[in-house]
Design goal:
Blueprint (H helix, E strand, L loop, with lengths): L7 H16 L2 E2 L7 E2 L16 E3 L2 E3 L2 E5 L19 H6 L4 E3 L14 H6 L3 H38 L4 H6 L17 H27 L9 H12 L1 H14 L5 H30 L7 H28 L25 H8 L1 H19 L7 H28 L6 H9 L1 H16 L5 H38 L6
Antiparallel strand pairs: 1-2, 3-6, 4-5
Helix pairs in contact: 4-12, 4-13, 6-7, 6-8, 6-9, 6-13, 6-16, 8-9, 8-10, 9-10, 9-16, 11-14, 12-13, 12-15, 13-14, 13-16, 14-16, 15-16
C-alpha cells in the first residue's frame, strides 16, 4: 500500500549537495547538523570527501502510519549511521537514515528550495485569512466599544445618581445582581483545575509561537517545535498550580490537597492516557511513530519529577496568598433568577459564542491540518502568531459581549458560562476535523482512523482548555471592572 517514498529531504539534500560540491565546502540538510568537506581534486577523491545522503520516513496518502525506510524491501547501506534525534522527531516518527543511493544533480544553487516552495500553498490565501479575521475582530470591537462607552456608561451614571430606595427598587439590570455576581460557582474545584491547566497551555503556546516567529524553531530543524512545546509545558507547572490554587481559594474551597493533585494529574493524565493508547496501536502496526519504551519512561520522568513538583510549588504560593478581593459583598441568600428568553439561556449562548472565534481560525486550521496529516511543511509562523493574537481578542470580546447581556437579564452565573462560551470553539474544531477527514483525506484502515480521531481528541481538549481560560479571564476582568465603579449601599 505504501507506494511512494517521502522524498522531500532526499530532494533537498540532492539540490544542496550538487550546488555545494561546485561552489562551497559544506552543506546543510534540514534536521541535521552542518557538515564540512574537503574540496576534491580531479582524479583524486578521498573517502572522506563523499557527501552522505539521507532519507526521511515512508508515508502514504491512505494512512497516517509512518514507517522507517528499512521497514520495506529497499536497498540499505551496510554501514548504517542514524543521526541523533530530538524529542519532537521521536514523537512524530521522523526517522532520518542514511541512503545507499547517489545521484548527480543538475539543480542550480539558487533553485535549491524550489521543490518545497512550489508545493506550499500560496500566501495570498493566508492574507485572505488574516483579513477575514480582522473584519470579525473589528466588528466585535465595535460592539464592545458601543457597550462600554455608551450603554454601560449610561447605566453606571444612572445607578450612581439614584437617591432613594424607591428608585433603586424600580431599577433593573446588571446592578441588581451585585450581591450574587461573585458567588462561588458550582463545581468550583473543577473550574479552578481547568483554569490552571489552561494558563499552562496559554503560556506554552505563546512562547512557542514567539520563538518560532523569531526563527529559533525553523521547520529546517525538524522536531524543534514539538520539543520546545513539551519542555515548556513541563517547566510551566508553577503558574498552573498557582492559578488553580488562587481561584479555588477565592471560590471558598478548602480541599487544597485534592485541588493540587487534580491540577497536576487530571488534564495531563487524560492526554497521556489517550496518547498511550494511540502508541499501543502504533506499536502493533510497527510504525516508526511508535514511541520507544525508553522515551516513554523519560516523558513520565519529566512529568512526575519536574512538572508535578513545580505544580505543588505554585499551589503552595497560591494558597499562601489571600483570596481575591471582590469589589462588592456577596449576599447570604441567593437571588432568584427570572425566566430567561431563548437567547439568554445557557446552551444557546454557549453555542453562539464559539462561532466567531472559530471563524477567525478555520482557514489557518486547514493549513495546520495539512501539515499534520498530509505531510506538508508548515513555515508561516508569522501568520500563525498573528492569528493567535486575533483569536485571543475575539474570544475575549465575544465572551464579554454575551456576559453583559446575561447580567442585564439578571443571570449571575457567569463563571462556567464564560469558560464554556469560548471553550465551545473546540466543538466547532471537532466538527471541522470530521469534515476534513471525510472530504480531504484518503485514509483507509481501522488503525489509521482510530489514530486520526484519537490525536484529534487530544488537540480538541487542549484547545478547549486554552480558549475557555481566555474567556474566563476576560469576563473576570470585565465583571470586576464594572462592579467596582458603581455605588452599592
Amino acid at each position: 500500500m505504501f507506494v511512494f517514498l517521502q522524498l522531500r529531504f532526499v530532494a533537498v539534500s540532492l539540490f544542496i549537495c550538487g550546488a555545494l560540491l561546485r561552489e562551497a565546502g559544506s552543506f546543510y540538510l534540514p534536521g541535521l547538523a552542518p557538515v564540512s568537506f574537503c574540496e576534491a581534486t580531479p582524479g583524486d577523491r578521498e573517502p572522506g570527501d563523499k557527501i552522505e545522503l539521507f532519507v526521511n520516513r515512508l508515508d502514504s496518502v491512505e494512512s497516517v502510519l509512518p514507517y522507517e525506510y528499512t521497514a520495506f524491501d529497499f536497498c540499505t547501506d551496510d554501514k548504517l549511521k542514524r543521526p541523533s534525534e530530538n524529542l519532537g522527531q521521536v514523537l512524530f516518527g521522523e526517522r532520518i537514515e542514511q541512503s545507499p543511493y547517489k545521484e548527480e544533480p543538475t539543480i542550480r544553487w539558487a533553485s535549491r528550495w524550489d521543490y518545497i516552495l512550489e508545493s506550499m500553498p500560496h500566501t495570498n490565501i493566508q492574507w485572505f485569512s488574516i483579513m477575514n479575521s480582522l473584519v470579525i475582530v473589528l466588528f466585535l470591537s465595535g460592539m464592545v466599544a458601543m457597550i462600554m462607552l455608551r450603554t454601560l456608561h449610561k447605566d453606571i451614571a444612572r445607578y450612581n445618581q439614584m437617591d432613594s430606595v424607591e428608585d433603586a427598587q424600580e431599577e433593573f439590570g446588571w446592578k441588581l445582581v451585585h450581591g450574587d455576581v461573585f458567588r462561588p460557582p458550582r463545581k468550583g474545584m473543577l473550574l479552578s483545575v481547568f483554569l490552571g491547566s489552561g494558563t499552562q497551555i496559554f503560556i506554552m503556546t505563546f512562547v512557542t509561537l514567539f520563538f518560532a516567529c523569531l526563527g529559533f524553531l525553523s521547520p529546517a530543524n525538524r522536531g524543534a517545535l514539538m520539543t520546545c512545546a513539551v519542555v515548556l509545558w513541563v517547566l510551566l507547572g508553577t503558574p498552573a498550580g498557582y492559578v488553580a490554587a488562587r481561584f479555588y481559594k477565592s471560590f471558598g474551597g478548602e480541599k487544597w490537597k485534592t485541588n493540587v493533585l487534580l491540577t497536576a494529574f487530571l488534564c495531563p493524565g487524560v492526554v497521556f492516557a489517550d496518547f498511550f493508547l494511540m502508541n499501543l496501536i502504533l506499536w502493533g502496526e510497527g510504525s516508526s511513530a511508535a514511541m520507544p519504551f525508553g522515551t516513554l519512561v523519560a516523558i513520565l520522568a519529566l512529568w512526575f519529577c519536574i512538572s508535578v513538583p513545580l505544580t505543588f510549588i505554585g499551589a503552595y504560593f497560591g494558597f499562601k496568598k489571600p483570596g481575591i478581593e471582590h469589589p462588592v459583598r456577596t449576599n447570604q441568600i441567593p437571588r432568584q433568577i427570572p425566566d430567561q428568553s431563548f437567547y439568554t439561556k445557557p446552551l444557546p449562548g454557549i453555542v453562539m459564542g464559539g462561532i466567531l472565534p472559530f471563524g477567525c481560525i478555520f482557514i489557518q486550521l486547514f493549513f495546520i491540518l495539512n501539515s499534520i496529516w498530509s505531510h506538508q511543511m508548515y513555515y508561516m509562523f508569522g501568520f500563525l502568531f498573528l492569528v493567535f493574537i486575533i483569536l485571543v481578542i475575539t474570544c475575549s470580546e465575544a465572551t464579554i459581549l454575551l456576559c453583559y447581556f446575561h447580567l442585564c437579564a439578571e443571570d449571575y452565573h457567569w463563571q462556567w458560562r464564560s469558560f464554556l462560551t469560548s471553550g465551545f470553539t473546540a466543538a466547532y474544531f471537532l466538527v471541522y476535523a470530521v469534515h476534513y477527514f471525510f472530504s480531504k483525506l484518503q485514509i483507509t484502515g481501522l488503525a489509521s482512523t482510530i489514530l486520526y480521531f484519537g490525536y484529534t481528541m487530544i488537540m480538541a481538549l487542549i484547545f478547549f482548555l486554552f480558549t475557555g481560560t481566555i474567556g474566563f479571564f476576560a469576563c473576570f476582568w470585565f465583571v470586576t471592572k464594572i462592579y467596582s465603579v458603581v455605588k452599592v449601599d
